[in-house]
Prior knowledge:
Elements: E1 2-7, E2 21-24, H1 25-28, H2 33-44, E3 52-57, H3 63-76, E4 81-89, H4 92-101, E5 107-110, E6 122-128, H5 137-148, E7 152-157, E8 167-171, E9 174-179, H6 183-192, H7 195-203, E10 208-211, H8 217-228, E11 236-237, H9 258-264, E12 272-276, E13 283-287, E14 290-292, H10 294-304, E15 317-321, H11 327-335, E16 338-342, H12 350-354, E17 360-363, E18 367-370, H13 378-392, H14 396-407, E19 409-420, H15 422-435, E20 443-444, E21 447-454, E22 457-458, E23 465-466, E24 471-475, E25 480-485, E26 493-503, H16 513-516, H17 518-528, H18 530-534, E27 541-542
Helix pairs in contact: 2-3, 2-5, 7-13, 10-11
Residues 18-19, 113-114, 277, 281-282, 321, 344-346, 363, 365, 367, 486-488, 496 line the site of 1,6-di-O-phosphono-alpha-D-glucopyranose.
Amino acid sequence: xxxxxxxxxxxxxxxxxxxxxxxxxxxxxxxxxxxxxxxxxxxxxxxxxxxxxxxxxxxxxxxxxxxxxxxxxxxxxxxxxxxxxxxxxxxxxxxxxxxxxxxxxxxxxxxxxxxxxxxxxxxxxxxxxxxxxxxxxxxxxxxxxxxxxxxxxxxxxxxxxxxxxxxxxxxxxxxxxxxxxxxxxxxxxxxxxxxxxxxxxxxxxxxxxxxxxxxxxxxxxxxxxxxxxxxxxxxxxxxxxxxxxxxxxxxxxxxxxxxxxxxxxxxxxxxxxxxxxxxxxxxxxxxxxxxxxxxxxxxxxxxxxxxxxxxxxxxxxxxxxxxxxxxxxxxxxxxxxxxxxxxxxxxxxxxxxxxxxxxxxxxxxxxxxxxxxxxxxxxxxxxxxxxxxxxxxxxxxxxxxxxxxxxxxxxxxxxxxxxxxxxxxxxxxxxxxxxxxxxxxxxxxxxxxxxxxxxxxxxxxxxxxxxxxxxxxxxxxxxxxxxxxxxxxxxxxxxxxxxxxxxxxxxxxxxxxxxxxxxxxxxxxxxxxxxxxxxxxxxxxxx
Length: 543
Ligand code: G16
């Protein structure tokens, strides 16, 4: 077995986005593309010499081959040990947990998350820090800088390792521990929640449907929901992870998880439904005849978290991404705890969690999590919901209506315009940003603009500043419009338009959100000139 230095040249465009580097799979499979980026991860984080890493991915096409390359590169770069999920599989939250549990020097996660997988779809790689969380901007910038001056990569010449067999093997000098991807994670979940109360609810006839969308969560959900909580076999559908996710778009939202949505709105629907994404960090929650928006889910989880053993002492604080609705802020106020507004991207929660300033975090993009790991965690959110349902003994619909009655309802929706021309998207955002100073005081759709800005985040822990995180337009009645371009797409640009309106009157809280948001939607289109700028007036995904 020899360690070889391979000459290479910088490859353009290896700048990590909202969550690591995501590209079309054929791009990742080009000669040296993966290798350059992985070498940049090692170089940009002080080298791999003597370090221990976690490695796993969501099982999408190219996951297995990429894992072999990464292992051989880790060995050549001097890593002491890599802990790999069996079959090179780990959900993102499970990887985060393993990094923390084993106190490793970080981990490499192979995933393009909610993006489709397959030979012509998407692939991704990201680095997580020793705290288990996604690398912050300072580190992704350092990695990117390394990609720009990359001239050699290190990789040993060796046969592939059998990653299907649990146990310890050696790759050159490096130890490779192939571990059960589910066991430690399932044990963690059992330590956080009242499984006995949930089992009793299940024994009493409670029914659930979990759509794993042929992605990584299948084995985790089957083990926890069916085996440990006693739900009937078949509760988890699309439970076998497939390289192309069975053609599904593994993004748990009403558009892509429509099969689950349809079932939950039938007369004989289960009591509770949920779906998760490609790598298991996102979740969608739906009750019988009621969809729970991610922003509302965060607020309800925060308001009721004390019902679960792990959070019975209360929350230290709540954090949400800026485009997420202010529903959680109202809960934080009622609980008398701090509330933080961060840019989009789970990496921004890491400092707050590490500093003990917040316990629960969430995003409108179907992400919720807590300080148990440093990633959002789809199954965690589902289990906290189940714990709350078991203790309260009420339906999802009842809990939602009671929540709105107490706190008011933040009607909320996100409109996505996907795969638009990047130049048009950039031009639209530039024009909108240029108009910011003129917006306050403007009357539109019977509302008056109170303030407008391009969101900048000042991290209260390390003092770093992240600018240009999205245009916020706030109205004097509490309504809000946010516009930003996605940092996770791989095709053209995706415009995300986030819409919010607050309704304190309990007699007006049952409207269809699109109807309730009508004036806000019209105002957004007029202010940003969406049709004129990008040539589209209808979103292709509404969440
Ligand atoms: C990632 C990030 C999230 C972010 C989401 C959408 O999620 O971890 O924090 O909210 O992307 O980002 P964007 O609006 O830039 O597309 P995931 O599940 O894709 O890893």
